[in-house]
Every structure is written in structure tokens, then in C-alpha cells.
Task: inverse folding
């Protein structure tokens, strides 16, 4: 096949990749921008399988990228959904206390919200029940009025159409194979690019190593499952979350009210055995299995964030009864018999720092004057996608100094 050329080549057509491509077109309207997607349709991975929650940005320390970009991204994506006529459920979120032991962490969340400029309300148990009559909390709760839910697939499809209308070339069924000198070899031939952006999600670390990056990082996959309620739409009015353990990046089992008003509980954060372990032995990779099991064994023995305890707690969540029992700590009237349907499995592309054996809490980028690599864009990456793309392009401009 004849070698193809472009000014900017983006690997990965999830919401991050498409948003970066759109921002590159805005900044460089005369440049050609191509996005390569290995699948034969869009939204096959995280962008089409996430919870749909537009987070507001109060979980993160004030000096983190996540803090700033989540606050900005929440507003940007809510505005985008409204302007494009996409479904949006502006239902808010309650963070409830299971006991007084949660109070110090609740106070920390309120401090972070104030530092991050995120609207939050400290409410009593009675006020929480006026917001959501079924909410269970110990004396107090936090209400986040700007948290919302949207339809991830609808948002991605709208952004894909916008990208195409803006002149971005989107190419399906084209998988990155390897880098050869200044060329990128793909399943559909070779590409030569002025600048490469790696937004390949679950495989971003491996692609980055072809360019000399991600030397101390590896992606460790975690399987996220939601269990859907059979109750009618409106059975819950708002999202209900527990107070999280701020030492790890997972928020615990919670209630999400979907864009159409139905409730689901989850997600799990079960260690996966290969990177695309969505169902059965689908997409099985011996290489992934060997690498992932080796990493997990190492974390079981040495990780400072108690990986062994986390793994066993998460594996127990394969039980519908156990998941419903955890959710029953947050809301009244939770019966396992009302939760019978598992949703589509999602895989969290969580970055692990091999030097410290810790999970990266913030977004991570590495790059130079010829390539940029998005190594960690896990939750709330979907919420942050619009300002995150602006940040990535600004970092590219610092390094590449385009004329």
C-alpha cells in the first residue's frame, strides 16, 4: 500500500482522541488531522461503556489537573449536550455518611470543593431526604447540584459528526502495529505524520514505548460492572455515593441515575486478567494475561495501597446479593430481587507507576517535539474531555513550537 501522510495523526477515536483532533483543527485550520481507530465502529471501549456521570470536581486535590479540568469539563459537556439537544439528566448527587467515622473525609471533600470552586451544599439528614426520600445517612450529607448524567454513546456520536464536519478524517479498522523510523505501520499500511498523538486508552503505554516513553508506567486493567434496577424510572431522584477512601482512585459502590431516570448500582473495580476482558474469553491475549498476572502478584505482595484487600473485596462484588447489600447502606428499600441485569462491562485503563507500585491518581502526559502520549485519562476523563483536549494541545504547542 502507498504510504499516506498527514500533519497530525491521532491514534484512538474515543472521546479523548476525537476531542484532541477537533482542538487541533481549531488551532491549525490549514493542517490535516487524521484519527485512526482499530475497531470497525466507535465507542467499543471506555467512551461507549462508562457510567455517563458528569462529575463536578470535588474529589480531587486543588493542585491536580483533575480538579481544574473536571470543573471546567462539567460545564463544557453540560453546555454541549444542551446545545446539541442530547439527553441530559441534571439530577445532582448526594454523598452520604455511613457513620460518624466518615465525617473527617466529608470535611475534606468540602474543603476540596471550596478550593476547586465547585458548588457544594452541606446538608442535614432531613434535608438529604427532601432531595432524595430514600437516602440513608448518618446526620449529615453533601449535595452536589452540578453533577449530572448523559448518554456516552450519544455524546461520542455527536462529537464524531462534528469532527467530520470540521474536516477531521476518521479512519476505522486501522490498528497501530509499530513504529519504524519516522513511519507508523498500521493494519492498513504506513503513515507519515508531522506530529503523533497517542490516545489509545488501554494500549497507550505500549504505543508510547515505541516512541521512548512510558518507561516507568504500565496500564493495569480493572473490570467495571453495573447492576441495573428493575424499578421504574424515577424510583431514585439523584445519584447517591458513599464517602470514598481518598487514598485510592475508586469511589466505591454507589447509585447512578441514568439519563432516562433508571437506577443502577456499581461499579466494581475487579482486577481484569487481560486488557479487553469484556466477556468470557473474548479478545483473550496470552501476552496480556502473563503481564497482568505478574503485576497483580507483585502488588499483592508489595503494594502500599493494600491491593490484596482491594482485590478480594472487589471479587466479592460478582455476587448480585453482595452488591445489593453494599448499596443498601446508602438507600432504603434496596432488594436484591430488583437488581437482575448486568450492564456492559467496562475496563478501566488504570496507570501503574512501577517505581512506587502505586496507581496514578491524576492525568499523565508524556511527549516531545514529535509525539504526545495520553497515558492516564481514566475517570473523570469523559467529563473532562473538552478542556482536557485543550490542555493536551497547549502542551503540544509548548514542545513542538509550530509556526
Result:
Amino acid at each position: 500500500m502507498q504510504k499516506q501522510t498527514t500533519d497530525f495523526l491521532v491514534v484512538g477515536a474515543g472521546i479523548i482522541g476525537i476531542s484532541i483532533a477537533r482542538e487541533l483543527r481549531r488551532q491549525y485550520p490549514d493542517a490535516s488531522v487524521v484519527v485512526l481507530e482499530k475497531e470497525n465502529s466507535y465507542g467499543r471501549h471506555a467512551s461507549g461503556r462508562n457510567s455517563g456521570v458528569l462529575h463536578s470536581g470535588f474529589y480531587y486535590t486543588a493542585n491536580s489537573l483533575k480538579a481544574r479540568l473536571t470543573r471546567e469539563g462539567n460545564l463544557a459537556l453540560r453546555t454541549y449536550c444542551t446545545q446539541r439537544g442530547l439527553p441530559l439528566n441534571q439530577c445532582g448527587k448526594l454523598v452520604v455518611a455511613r457513620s460518624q467515622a466518615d465525617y473527617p473525609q466529608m470535611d475534606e471533600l468540602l474543603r476540596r470543593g471550596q478550593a476547586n470552586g465547585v458548588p457544594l451544599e452541606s446538608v442535614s439528614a432531613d434535608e438529604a431526604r427532601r432531595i432524595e426520600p430514600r437516602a440513608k445517612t448518618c446526620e449529615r450529607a453533601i449535595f452536589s447540584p452540578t453533577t449530572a448524567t448523559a448518554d456516552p454513546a450519544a455524546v461520542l456520536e455527536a462529537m464524531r459528526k462534528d469532527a467530520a464536519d470540521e474536516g477531521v478524517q476518521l479512519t476505522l479498522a486501522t490498528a497501530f502495529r509499530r513504529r519504524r523510523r519516522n513511519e507508523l505501520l498500521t493494519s492498513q499500511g504506513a503513515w507519515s505524520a508531522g506530529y503523533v498523538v497517542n490516545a489509545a486508552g488501554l494500549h497507550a503505554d505500549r504505543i508510547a514505548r515505541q516512541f521512548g516513553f512510558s518507561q516507568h508506567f504500565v496500564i493495569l486493567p480493572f473490570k467495571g460492572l453495573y447492576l441495573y434496577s428493575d424499578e421504574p424510572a424515577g424510583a431514585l431522584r439523584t445519584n447517591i455515593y458513599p464517602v470514598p477512601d481518598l487514598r485510592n482512585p475508586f469511589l466505591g459502590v454507589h447509585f447512578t441515575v441514568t439519563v432516562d431516570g433508571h437506577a443502577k448500582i456499581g461499579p466494581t473495580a475487579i482486577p481484569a486478567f487481560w486488557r479487553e476482558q469484556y466477556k468470557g474469553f473474548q479478545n483473550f491475549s496470552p501476552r496480556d494475561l502473563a503481564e497482568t498476572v505478574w503485576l497483580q502478584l507483585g502488588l499483592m505482595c508489595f503494594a502500599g495501597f493494600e491491593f490484596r484487600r482491594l482485590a478480594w473485596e472487589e471479587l466479592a462484588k460478582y455476587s448480585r446479593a453482595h452488591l445489593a447489600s453494599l448499596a443498601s447502606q446508602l438507600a432504603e428499600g434496596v432488594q436484591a430481587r430488583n437488581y437482575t441485569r448486568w450492564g456492559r462491562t467496562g475496563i478501566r485503563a488504570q496507570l501503574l507507576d512501577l517505581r512506587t507500585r502505586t496507581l496514578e491518581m491524576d492525568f499523565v502526559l508524556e511527549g516531545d517535539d514529535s509525539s504526545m502520549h495520553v497515558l492516564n485519562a481514566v475517570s473523570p476523563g469523559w467529563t473532562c474531555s473538552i478542556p482536557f483536549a485543550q490542555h493536551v494541545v497547549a502542551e503540544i504547542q509548548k514542545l513542538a513550537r509550530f509556526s
The first helix runs from residue 15 to 27. The radius of gyration is 21 Å. The chain has a mean pLDDT of 94.
